[in-house]
Amino acid sequence: MKKILIFIFCVLSFQAFAMEKKTTFDADLFKKAQSEGKIVVVSSWIKYCSSCASQMKVLNKAEDDFKNIVYLNFDVRNKDISNLLKVEYQTTLLIFKNNKEVYRSIGETTKEKIYKAINSSI
Question: pTM for this one?
Answer without folding.
Answer: 0.82
